[in-house]
Predict the 3D structure of the following.
Amino acid sequence: MSIEAKKRIDELTDAINYHNYRYYMLEDPVISDFEFDRLIKELAALENTYPQYVRDDSPSKRVGGAVSEKFGQVRHNIPMLSLDNTYSRDEVAEFDAKIKRFLGYPATEEIEYECELKFDGLAVELIYRDGIFVQGSTRGDGVTGEDVTANLKTINTIPLKLQKNIGYIEVRGEVLMDKKGFKRLNEERLKEGSSLFANPRNAASGSIRQLDPEVTSKRNLIMFAYGTGGYSKEIIFETQFEMMNFLRAAGININKNVAVVKGISGAIDFFDGVAKKRESLPFEIDGIVIKVNDLKLQERLGEISKSPRWATAYKFSAKQEVSEITGIEVSVGRTGILTPVAILKPVNIGGVVVKRATLHNQDEINKKNINIGDGVLVERSGDVIPEVVKVISKGGNSGPFKLPELCPCCGSLTVIDGAAHRCMNELSCPCQIKGTIVHFASKRAMDIEGLGEKIVDKLVEKGLIKNVADIYYLKKGDLSGLEGFGEKSEENLFNSIEKSKNISYDRFIYALGIRHVGEHIADLLVKYFGGIEGIKSAGIEELSSRFGIGEEIGKSIFNFFRTGSNTAVIERLFKAGVSPHIVNVSAYAGYGKIAGKSFIFTGGLKDFTRDEAENSVKEMGGIVEKTVKKKLDYVVAGNEPGSKYDKAVKLKLNIINEEEFKELIK
Ligand code: IVH
């Protein structure tokens, strides 16, 4: 049985990897999505029962993976160089002339160049051993990068297994976020109150350097390769173009905009063609890369101060103009972030009159030393909000502008949250209040039927509600004057307000709209800490590490309960009769050893299926984890445990067998 399972796991792993390749690389699937999902499900079920047979190149490794505390360092066998930039035809011509001078060729010689897109993302190196992806790292400083293998494994355009069994190869390329994914991510971040990424490059970089690969997996990243580092001797190619074709045939993602051209005029034509289609490409590029095609010539040309002599980036010139900052406005977004915006003397940049430019945050202002009255260079590229690139001449104000310590909307003290200044008065700040109330009343939160966006707008504008607690202090008649509100609808609303007082604790916590606290985290918080008192008394470290949610979320929860106006609102909610209850408290009471404790299972159990064992833990208020992390309470090891077991031993976790587990849940 077990041998058959292993065989089927192997078959499914190979089949899914092949179909992934057809779908993502060749864009030519040969099976339906439905059939593909069926294969995935079959494999997942088998891997769950036989974790010892899960292969390193299993598609299930694309999601999740262990949460690392910090990335390890990877020294690149061959340094990852950077490129010299050129911005004009003259500069490109000079690049060509220099090459000919260096090689001793006559000026009339036409060098063969290979031209590629210059992707605007994050450089990475992928190592394949015997065709299997074994390690991935960022470029870092070119000599040493960070080990981001688990995160790179979540990217569909990075094959876990190559189509050819190559002994050893280091593939180099760029990880990008496409324009649509970037827009969607920022929309989501705006909703949940996280700071926005300034451009897709920062978003890609932030996504790859996530401590939790599960977050990376949701970011829809792509990878395009453009070269190699070291590789086994048996691999032979003579030109850059052959190298790209070799990589493509091996299953590595190579963008189709690659061309071999004759002479530098050919490269300039390629640039002009790319410039025309730049806007219609689904991802950002910032120019093209021109490379001498012949690898022997590349070797002869070598490098100079960390850039190869044989390649240059021919970049699009950004649209920039000079203007003056006449004022700085600080607005407070729906989620409490303070955003400084420069008010400019109107300036025409590439046909558009620009009057405002984002200054992003205090760090950016400090870095560029920006203040009111300064002469500045302003850039506008594509659809991106114009931004101040640098100060050209300082005005009357020395030093950088300082963001206010008090929220310009409600006057409460702001906190520094990463790069952002944030108003923590989440439950009462007028700039945040409408969004907060709509969320509070929403179906999955307090479920107050009839309290939607339009009504909330009116109630806030009329001054009838200033925070969520005010909902419970509305009086009969308050609403009757409102447009579209009759006696019946008023009565209905009061009924659902009344009904909402009896709510489960996890939904109440979720309803408070604490930044980053979605339904799942709200549920975990209640399981671990009980009610508000428990959560309130936990420190940042405990909140962050208890179930691996990380410091950003831990801090957000901690700060929320340290803001007096928030706790005052919660007290008023309780006073008004809102009484959240822990739904399963009685159920958990007898399960002292399970409730609130975290478990992970590895290997097969005799008397339970994996689902049965996990469900019994969940029913008793315990938490089932999927990845091994430092803070696990119990690792239940059955027959032939898999890699989770080895990891648990390494981390010296509490490992118990099936009998001990049975004893716990008795
Ligand atoms: S070749 C030695 N090709 O540009 C040559 N780089 O400014 C190294 N980049 O770190 C790079 N698209 O991250 C090459 N088609 C392309 C590229 C490309 C984007 C990035 C890469 C590199 C940076 C250098």
In short: The chain is about 35% helix and 20% strand. The longest strand covers residues 319-332. The two ends are 31 Å apart (CA to CA). Residues 81-83, 116, 118-119, 123, 139, 174, 226-227, 289, 308, 311, 313 surround 2-(butylsulfanyl)adenosine (CB under 6 Å).
